Amino acid sequence: MTTDTSNLLQQLIDGELPDERGFFGPFGGRFVPETLVPALERFERGAREALKDGAFKTELRQHQETWVGRPTPLMYAPRLSEAWKAQVWLKREDLAHTGAHKINNALGQALIAKRIGAQRVVAETGAGQHGVATAAACARVGLPCIVYMGAKDVERQAPNVVRMRRMGAEVRPVSTGDATLRAAVDEAIRHWVGDPQGTHYILGSAVGPHPFPWIVREFQKVIGVESRRQMLEQAWKLPDIAVACVGGGSNAIGFYHGFLGDAEVELHGAEAGGIGPAVGQHAATMSGGTPGVLHGSRSMLLQDGDGQVSDTQSVSAGLDYPAIGPEHALLAHVGRVHYHAVRDHDAIAALDELCRLEGILPAVEPAHALALARRLCEGRDDPTVLVNVCGRGDKDMPILTRLAEEGNT
Amino acid sequence: MRAHEVISQAITDGRDTHGIALVAYVTAGYPSMDAFPAILADACAHADVVEVGIPFSNPIADGGSLQETARAALKAGATMNKIMHTLRELDGTLAAPLLLMGYLNPLLAYGLDRLADDAQAAGVHGVIVPDLPLEALGMAEPLTDAGLATIGMVSPVTSDARLARIVERATGFVYAVTSVGVTGQHRSDQSSIVEYLHKVTSAATIPVCAGFGIRSKQHVDTLRESCDGVIVGSALMEAVGEGRAIGPILQGLR
After folding, report:
1. pLDDT value for A2
2. Whole-number Å distance between alpha carbons of B91 and B78
3. pTM for the model
């Protein structure tokens, strides 16, 4: 384990991380039951071959352009800019097919699953966006799809459950454990342990055993690459501040990758601060966690002194997870990205502000990023800020309806 | 004799005496920390080696039965500190050598150097860590340096090349997972299991025990000629959950 942090950042920028064992410096790896190792090796081989194959890249690009709707727009937000006393730019991943960035990874992995001969796909979902994206991608490439979802999330993200089922996916509610994303991941992994040869597990975030954090980043990098190019084309400059929300961290890792080498761009991550800093009241992994091993990789983890994983809480199902991708842990370790906890009520206020000033209903996940971006603009002189609006809020209607009924907004 | 040799010897002795060695799994702290010592003693009286399961909040290789015991044990207040304290108090009174079976994170939180020291003081002879694969075995160095058994796990989908490397590194015994899946599930294709176990025993120079989904004497009999021992867990913990003693179940298995 090296302590030379500047060297680690350069290695990351140069594409040398993760290393061959799947480590991003001290984080990452492949801590899984032996039964899964051959499946992970097969997937990694298949992914590496695919990403080098011109025909695969062409096919992926065609799907991205005609089915996903890439590139997604970069939008100047004039009324938000006025309110924040800043130049606010929004990367509109909410306009991608199925309403979130999740489709970038789901499509890529589904194409690889087909290529390596998987008979079916299993996935987990929190907010339902990854489940919907996987259901759609599986419908597109012709693979059966089973989606595990915490029973609590089935309830709070009901519209996405209907969408998944309409697209032919089987949604299996998980009522064990905390009945949220973490329990869904447990169950999806258990399913996969039972049929590692026939099943491909499309993990939806930049977490899990190697090669998932790497492959998810590779498929989400398109967000950062497009954002950087679009900023130069439309704003004629790079942002001073770039902000994304982080749960597991898939939208953020792809977004950051466009700017890692631009030292003048400050990178920030908004974690789910929930209702407070006490254990069990939030999901702010970087702010409140310690290094540990969960779901196959070593990263920052919300846990007690005995290594038991803590319960989490967030208004956003997609951020309600006690760990974070190992590459984020490295980015925090080397000081390249700064992570901050954003409370539920601040996120909902930011969601309302975007609705009222720009006519965009974001998901509650990127609402955390908006709240943080506004906070970061305070006290600065007309900063240029870029926020990744990674998903749209239609799926959050049950939550927003409940909050309105309770008089919270 | 080093700790890992004690485990190998206990398996060999069990096989020589009874035709097949018996490894029993009990979840530490289930159904309560108070009830655990008597259950452990019962298991030790009827098995050749006993695995003490360290409860973890996210046991991804375990099926429903063992998940439930882990959850209940944690709820009842089981912690690594309490478990090690209990084992230290029981040391010298148990009829069989012990292994710890635990997921990596609670062991890391306890500290592997500390675990190496405390394990020896508590009569623990080795560890089984299901989420510590071959490539990460270096992390277990404090345990191997202390002479503790680091049980190697192989599965029916493990390649021959990988199998050779795992059995070479393993000490104590090789844990041959008989079914692809989580604990407690039984798959019925016996001929392929026998063939697979033959491959593992041919590659290994230490005893081989088969586990996952072994629930009846009939299962044990089909494996009798193919390996040195069998590992039984879910069936025992289900019995504990129903308030039944596990001694008679273990007796009935061989």
Report:
1. 45
2. 19
3. 0.95
B68 a catalytic residue = no
Alpha helices (runs of H) in A116-233, residue ranges in sequence order:
129-141, 151-156, 158-166, 181-194, 212-230
Pairing of the two strands A241-245 and A384-389: parallel
**Of A189, A144, A188, the residue nearest A167 (C-alpha):** A144
Q: What is the pLDDT of residue A1?
A: 45
Amino acid at B183: T
From B62, B118, B228, B238, the catalytic residue: B62
Which residue among B108, B177, B181 places its CB closest to the CB of A307?
B108
Phi-psi region of A238 (alpha: psi -120 to 50; beta: other; left: phi over 0): beta
Does the beta carbon of B76 lie under 8 angstroms from any beta carbon of chain A? Answer: no
Q: How many CB pairs under 8 A join A and B?
A: 109
**Residue segments in chain B with a per-residue pLDDT below the cut of 70:** 184-189
Mean pLDDT by 10 residues, chain A (409 residues): 75 96 97 93 97 98 98 98 98 98 98 96 93 98 97 90 97 91 90 90 96 98 98 98 98 98 98 96 96 97 97 93 97 98 98 98 98 98 98 93 82
**Closest-CA distance of chain B to residue A199, Å:** 12
Instruction: Please judge whether B108 and A292 are an interchain contact, meaning their C-beta atoms are less than 8 angstroms apart.
Output: yes
Q: Does B104 touch chain A (CB under 8 A)?
A: yes
What is the Cα Rg of chain A in Å? Answer: 19
Number of helices and strands in chain B (H, E): 12, 9
A201 — phi, psi (to 5°)?
A: -95, 115
Burial of A394 (0-12, 13-18, 19+ CB in 10 A): middle
Long-range Cβ contact pairs of B213-220 (< 8 A, separation 24 or more)? B213/B178, B213/B179, B213/B181, B213/B183, B213/B184, B213/B185, B213/B186, B213/B187, B214/B178, B214/B186, B215/B186, B216/B253, B217/B252, B217/B253, B217/B254, B219/B186, B220/B20, B220/B253, B220/B254
Contacts of A18 (CB under 8 A, 6+ apart): A24, A28, A210, A211, A213, A214, A326, A327
Q: How far apart are CA A187 and CA A325, in angstroms?
A: 19
pLDDT at B235: 94
Instruction: Give CA–CA dist B119/B113, Å, rounded.
Output: 10
Please state, as a whole number, how many other Cβ atoms lie within 10 Å of the Cβ of residue A58. 10
Q: Chain B 165-184, CB below 8 Å of chain A: which residues?
A: 166, 177, 180-182
| Dist CA A221 CA A257 (whole Å) | 6
- Rounded to the nearest angstrom, the minimum Cα separation between B125 and chain A is 22
Is beta strand A337-343 parallel, antiparallel or unpaired with respect to A74-76?
Answer: unpaired
Residue A181 near residue A319, CB atoms below 8 Å: no
Phi and psi for A146 in degrees, rounded to 5? -120, 130
In whole angstroms, what is the distance from residue A354 CA to residue A92 CA?
13
Q: Which residues of A touch B184 (CB under 8 A)?
A: none
Q: What per-residue confidence (pLDDT) applies to A409?
A: 56
Instruction: Select the residue of A32, A189, A196 nearest B157 (Cβ to Cβ).
Output: A196
Determine whether B141 is an active site residue: no
Decide: A27 and A285 in contact? Cβ < 8 Å. Answer: no
Q: Which amino acid is at A238?
A: L
